[in-house]
Each structure stands twice: as structure tokens, then as C-alpha cells.
Amino acid sequence: MVFVFKEIMKGVLLVNTGSPKTCARPDVKFFIRAMLSDPYVMTVPDWFRPILVNGLIIPLRQFSSTAHYRMIWDHTKEDSPLLDHAKSLAKKLETLTELPVEVAMRYGQPDVQLALERLMAKNNRLHEVVVLPLFPQYAESSYKTVVDEVGRIFFKRPYPFRLRVIEPYFRHPAYISSLVKSIRPYIAEGFDKLIFTFHSLPLSHVEEGWKKGKEFDYVYQTKETVRLVLRELDMEMKRTRQVYHSAMGKKWLGPSLDEVIEEQAAEKTKKLLVVAPGFAADNLETLYDINIKAKELFIDKGGAQLTFIPCLNSEDYWVESVARIIS
């Protein structure tokens, strides 16, 4: 399939959360500190945030997080799985669209400023840069913090192009189509329950989004994604569950993946499929929290098989879908 973009002076910036530079403990500590120092992620008073992050969270989490990153790291490559998939997606998208494409990370490298400089090095006559935050559903701790960071960098200097930011694509037909294509082969092999899991959020964030309307309502958007996928799969809701994982506290959105996995094991469910539509690429929250931790929990509780369906990553059909989303 060939995509024709008439605006040849256009560039594309793909933005994701980021990951540590390496799986060594100093790099993991640096990454955790950068992410949790973001007020959109850690919503506590500004004066208290560094005390909480540096005095409690990092000392408690640095060793376990480092061990978890080492378990999911591809030691044959220099990059984390997340960054490796992002680079592959950018390269394929550049080939497909014949537009300059770069990757930026909200925390870590390459950062937004470096990515914009790389785009200008590829084409110093850019008129527009299309920014795609790789988050299908809106959340302040993912989509909004990326958009704000891109804007902050953009307005620091007189860039010779304008920005066009793509809105959350939770119901875009191309995104839904890619999810369906990723899920269908696993369904064909047989299963008892298909679990859709999304990253959990603090309930305070969820309530604020709900008050603002559907374009900011995380729960509505996750449910709409699931509804559209099930419609395309022609699957009954009773064969599925929607849950949330990777919560960092008690007052977070549920039901949790771990709770539902234990329930399914107690109900003698044997074969679970788990998919995480909120992530564009595999990362710690999918490769460890789901494919290792959740899988072990299910087996320990008496289940027979939990299969994690990989994220869209840089599959060819997802590359085509991204081209549609940004066009």
C-alpha cells in the first residue's frame, strides 16, 4: 500500500513515555526520578514531591525495578524494547510515507528538542511537524504531559514550522483494525477468556477527566476501544473482561488485573488471553507486569495458560494505520 502525502514539507514526530538508557541501576534510578518528578504523574504538593520521590520511592523501588528491567531487556541490542520498537516504527513509517520521521521520549533520550533538531537536519524547509503522542486514550500522565512538553520546547525558540498535534485515537478505525488483526490469530487457537487491560490511573485523575467530558474521560475511552474491537471481532462481552494494571496505590482505578486473574483461576478458567490496547509498544508494564508477573500468578493459582498478545509495536499493518492516523 502506498500513501501519497502532498505536503512534502511535512515531518512527523512520534512521542512515547521513555525508558532507562540501560538496565543498570543508576540509569533506572535516573529514569524513575525523572518520571515521578513530573507533576502530571505524581500529583502531590510541589514541595513534598522530591521528598517522596527521593526519600521513599526510589530507595524502595530502585533494586526491584532494576531487576525487572534486566528481565525484559534485549541484551543483544543497545536500546530498551520500547525504544527499539519506536525506532523500527519510525523507520518503516518514513519508508512508507516518504516523510522525515523521528522519535522522542518524554523522559530520557532522545528528548523532544533532539528529535526536532534531527527532523530539521533531514529537511531544513519543513513547514509543519505532525506530533503523534503514542497514547490512544487521554490521560494527563501520558498524553497531556507529552503535549505540554512538546509545546514547552517548541516555544523556547523560533522554529520555522508549525505543529499539528494528533488527538487521542482511541476510536480511529485504523487503530481498531490493527488491534483486531493482532488479536484474531490468538482467538483462533482457542481461549476461555479474553482480558483487556489498561494502565491504571489515580481515581482523582479519572474523576477530573470525567468532569471535563468524553474527550478527557479515560474510562469512557478505554471502554469505547474495547466495544469497537469486540464489534469487529463479533465477540460477546461475556467472554471478556476489562481491567487495569500497574497501579501504584490503593486509590487507583480498578478492577485490577491481578484480582481478576485470581478470580478466573478460582472459577477454573484454564486459558486466558491478555491484551493491552493502551500501549503502542511493549515495555516494562507489559513484558514484566503481564507477561511474567501476571502469568506466574495465574499458574500459581491453578490456571493452565496465560498468553499475552504483544502490543502493535512496529507491525506492518500498524505502520499503515499510523500513516492513516496522521494523514
**SSE ordering:** EHHHEHEHEHEHHEHEHHEH
Stated plainly, the CATH topology of the largest domain is called Rossmann fold
Class from secondary-structure proportions: alpha/beta
Q: Strand sequence of the main sheet, in spatial order?
A: 2-1-3-4
Q: Helical segment tally?
A: 12
Number of domains: 2
- The geometry reads as globular
Low-confidence stretches: none
The largest sheet, given as strand count, sense and whether it forms a barrel, is:
4 strands, parallel
Binding site for Fe(2+): 199, 285
Catalytic activity: heme b + 2 H(+) = protoporphyrin IX + Fe(2+); Fe-coproporphyrin III + 2 H(+) = coproporphyrin III + Fe(2+)
Family: Belongs to the ferrochelatase family.
Subcellular location: Cytoplasm
What's the short story on this structure?
With 327 residues, the chain is of the alpha/beta class. It is built from twelve helices and eight strands. The chain has a four-stranded parallel beta sheet, sandwiched between helices.
Blueprint of the fold:
Layout: E1 10-16, H1 25-36, H2 49-72, H3 81-97, E2 101-105, H4 112-122, E3 128-133, H5 140-154, E4 162-165, H6 173-188, E5 193-199, H7 203-212, H8 218-233, E6 240-245, H9 257-266, E7 271-275, H10 284-287, H11 289-300, E8 305-309, H12 316-326
Parallel strand pairs: 1-2, 1-3, 3-4, 5-6, 5-7, 7-8
